Amino acid sequence: MSESIKAVVINNVNDEYTAEYKTVAVNDLPQFDVAIDVAFSTLNYKDGLAITGQGPVVREFPMIPGIDLAGEVISSASNEFTAGQKVILNGYSVGEKYWGGLSQRAHLKSDWLIPLPDSLSLKQVMQIGTAGYTAMLSIIALEKHGIKPDSGEILVTGANGGVGSFAIYLLNQLGYDVVASTGRLEQSDYLKYLGTKTVISRTDLSTPGKPLQKERYGGAIDCVGSHTLANVCASLKYAGAVSACGLAQGMELPASVAPFILRGITLIGIDSVMRPKADRIEAWSRLAQLVSSDYLDEISTEIKLADTIEHANRLMKGDVRGRIVVNCNING
């Protein structure tokens, strides 16, 4: 009898879309070079889209979702990793094209993995997850462009989202003066707890604006796209920069070249899915230095793997705030 595990499995047969918590044979897992005992995964917005079928996320069926995971190597055919080593996975189309982290075990390519930072636990890296990792990449991009705390206010759009809220916290830790743009002004106290000094309504930025506006922000992290990103660009100070890492409002960019030519601003695209390993290690090293365990416990909720589908539905209804960490070792 072959060994089996529990996992969340999505399928689409004859246009009947299903998501189940079920038993999977270990022999059915992909034959990649590293086998991992998954300790924790997370439930991201992209995972919610995949599990509920509300977005065309999954490209191969059947699919085990989960774009993040942290666990311990069981066996490895790679010289880079050894049994017993703790590792992290973010992105690389795992949970979309390749079986992902919402499972008790995963078989992955060694090129996709990085070692767990010494000062973080397996649970803590999933409390951070792709949201915190993307926020850190966005900040590093601004730093490399020369944006410093004395460059002026840094605007964060989509501030109540996973990336936005992490960006506010990290920027505050680094001494930046943060302005938060949100569609949920009733949560302004939470954003101020994270470290923002000023909260503005997303409606200030979400409609068509002038191609050049008053110079206000030294830099920005935009999680929204569309008219919001266009207005952010128009509001940057001379030589300012914006890290664009999301498209919650839309993929289009109805902007003018005016701020790029007349103010020398820079638009930096942030990809977290296919990021080179060196960039990943740098981002996680910085996160290990900046993030406190008290903060992570404050913003996250731990659930069992068996409860993932229920929480995915809640997530898509907007009934969840903060990070959802999935304990893949607890049955039932």
Q: Explain this structure to me?
A:
The protein is of the alpha/beta class and 332 residues long. The chain folds into 2 domains: 4-116 and 293-327, Medium-chain alcohol dehydrogenases, catalytic domain (Quinone Oxidoreductase, Chain A, domain 1), CATH 3.90.180; 130-269, 3-Layer(aba) Sandwich (Rossmann fold), CATH 3.40.50.720. Helices cover 29% and strands 27% of the residues. The protein contains 9 helices and 15 strands. The chain has helices spanning 45-52, 122-144, 162-173, 188-194, 226-235, 258-262, 277-290, 293-299, 308-316, and strands at residues 4-13, 16-25, 34-42, 68-76, 86-90, 105-108, 113-115, 154-156, 178-182, 198-201, 217-222, 236-244, 266-269, 300-304, 323-327. The strands form 3 sheets. Strands 3, 4, 5, 6, 7, 14 and 15 form a 7-stranded mixed β-sheet that branches. Strand 9 (178-182), helix 4 (188-194) and strand 10 (198-201) form a beta-alpha-beta unit. Helix 2 crosses helix 3. The longest helix is centred in the middle third of the chain and has 23 residues, at 122-144. The radius of gyration is 20 Å and the shape is globular. The model has no long low-confidence stretch (mean pLDDT 95).
